[in-house]
Structure formats: C-alpha cells, structure tokens
Amino acid sequence: MGTQAILSNAELLLMNHSPPHAWLEEAQAEASGPASVLTLPNRRSLTTSIRARAQVFVDPRSLALLERIRMVAPSDANVLIAGETGTGKELIARHVHALSRRADAPFVAVNCGAFSETLVESELFGHEKGAFTGAFCAKPGWFEAANGGTLFLDEIGDLPLSMQVKLLRVLQEREVVRLGARKSIPIDVRVVAATNVHLQDAVAAGHFREDLFYRLNVVQLAIPALRERPGDILPLARYFIEDYRGRLGYGSHGIDPRAEHRLQTHSWPGNIRELENVIHQALLVSRQDMLQEGDLQIASFSALCPGGAGMAAPSASPVTQQTLESALRDLFNEAHENLFEHIEDTVIRVAFEFSHRNQIQAARLLGISRNVLRARLIRAREIAALK
Fold it and tell me: Which has the closest alpha carbon to 189: 223, 144, 229?
C-alpha cells in the first residue's frame, strides 16, 4: 500500500479543523509529502509542548490501529487511549472525533493533571456565581462546552479520587451539576480518555476506581511506542524535515543512509516528540543538503534506557536489587516507627529531587499519578499544601 493512500483526504482534512478555505491547501500540501499525516491544529504554536504534533500510519502496527479507529469511531462508545508520553494520544482522540457523527460539534481537550484538586471540579462541571471566593459570575464547565461533541480527558489517571466519583456519576446519569448549584444540566458528550500509566495497576493500588475504569474502557486503543513501529520513523523524520525546512527557509534536505540507520535503531524513549526535536536540531547544525549521522544529537541518557520511558519500567539490575534489599533489612532491624510511611516518603523525595523537583516527571518515573505524588510530597513536607 502506498503512503499516499494511507489516509483519505477527508480524514486528513477533518483532523485539522481549519476554516474551509485553509483545509484544502494544507491537506493537499501534506498529501503530496513523504507520507500522509495527522497534525494538531495550530501546530506551529506548540513547539514547546511535550505532545506529539504529527502522526503517520505506515508501519503495519499503525495501520492496524488506524483500521480499529475507523471501526469504533462511528459509535458513541467511550474510548480509553493508552500509550507512552509523546506517542500522539490527542491526535488519535481528534481522529476518533473526526470520523464520528459528532465531527461538526465541539472537540474539547482537557489535561486532568493541569488543575489543582481545588479547581478541577469547577473546571470540569462549571460553577455558579458566588460558589466560592472569586466566583464573580457563573461559568460553564468543560462538559457543557463539549455538549453534542467529544470531551478528551488527557492524563485521566491524575484525576483525584473525589473527582472520579463525580465523573462516574456524570457518565452514568449524563447530566452535570455546577458547583454551587442544585439543578442538574443534561449533557450529550462522548468521552475519550487517555493515560500513560497502566490504569489496571492504579486500580489494584487503590488510586483509580474500578467502576470508572470499566465505564471508560468500553473501547481501548493502545498506541504502540515509536520503537515498536519502526516503519513510521523515517516517514515522520521526513515530515519534520519538510516542516522545519519551510520554517527556517532552507533548501531541500534528505537523510544520509547512515543517519537513517541511526534513526531506525534508536529506542526513542521520548517517542515522536523526541524525534521531532532531534530533526529540528539536526537541521540547525547541518551544513549539507543531506542530514549526516553526526548531525543527530540524540540524548546520551536514552542509551541507558533501552526500554524507553514507557508504561512499564525495566527491572533493576541484580546488584541494585541486592543493595535495596540489604537497606530494607537494616531498616527492619532498627524497628523504625511508621516504617512503611518512612520508606514511601524517602522514595518519593528521592524521585522528586532526581527529577529536578518536577512533579510530572517524578510521577512518571514512579508510575503513579501526579495527584498521588503531590499528596505524598505534602505529607513529607517537601512542598506546601497550596502549591
């Protein structure tokens, strides 16, 4: 199958949600490139985002995913998208929306980890005037904003347990109650959720409600990591070359065979976003019309993590495991009060410092939600309760 036929023009146009006169120009330009792509709207304003800005379907595993999307998109079933950070989960969610009967209605994307626990309820469900200090007027929530369309809940695993209960009720009753209100508002919304952690493990650990998991997981779309779909690497690289070449005003650029081999053999723990950064930097330092292997500045720490920064962490080495077990035995001999809490606080604190006090990175490193991490950091007095 040729790459030109991978996505229909209709699918490509619907992804961008641009004004009608802009749709055709952008679709034709991208369809004539190395491979058909899905892109985020206003993608040039997202260069500092950790999200993937483009998605291709060339590798057999990607084509199988695309076929599954085409099968489930026309229904109104809730969808759970699982994949590592940077694999393009929002792009897939937008494509599900674009192929559904709701395509002409709103698509609203919300990052559940971006709001504090005190704000998330009013953001999702809205609030009435005077519902809390600073609520000077009534405001609809994201569910109301997405009414008739699709609500994309990214990082759903970061949603506090108290909000999970309320979200479950909204999904069951199909109505929302604004904060400070007594009257419910009917809604017609399809929910597409995404996660970069194993929600089954979060359920087992008591961090995510089992009933909510099953309510969201009617259809699951698992996005393979970039290293698991090598057939997509070079088409994506060529797309990013064309994209950045145009921005930088450069002439035509190709990829030297040795550079191609380097791209195809790297594990890409940062997935599509990492590949985009590598290509961008390579174009900036390249002095030839072919990207050379030496132009590819791939982060050295990636080589230390051949399994990638994904949803399943690699096993510890035997020496590391023995050292850990020895340290635990020493603690057991000390008969430390509240030992488990002490160990947990130590693990959280070390991960937080290792991640340069970045909560999102520390949570990802430990395989827990940001809200769980924040609660433990507050308990350990590493951060203030209002932070």
Answer: 144
Which residues have a Cβ under 8 Å from the Cβ of 140 and sit 6 or more positions away?
A: 126, 178
Tens of pLDDT, residue by residue, the chain (387 residues) = 443 333 443 333 333 333 333 322 333 333 334 456 777 665 544 433 445 778 999 999 999 999 999 999 999 999 999 999 889 999 999 999 999 999 999 999 998 877 777 788 888 999 888 888 887 898 899 999 999 999 999 999 988 888 999 999 999 999 999 988 889 999 999 999 999 888 998 898 888 999 999 999 999 999 999 999 999 999 999 999 999 888 888 888 899 999 999 999 999 988 998 999 999 999 998 888 899 999 998 865 444 444 444 444 445 556 677 788 888 888 888 877 788 888 888 898 888 888 878 887 788 888 887 778 888 888 888 887 654
- Number of folded domains that form the chain: 3
Same-domain status, 324 and 292: no
Whether residues 210 and 125 share a domain: the answer is yes
Pair (160, 71) in one structural domain: yes
Evaluate whether residue 10 is within a structural domain: no
238: domain range?
Answer: 228-304
Look up the pTM and report it.
0.71
Same domain, 243 and 176: no
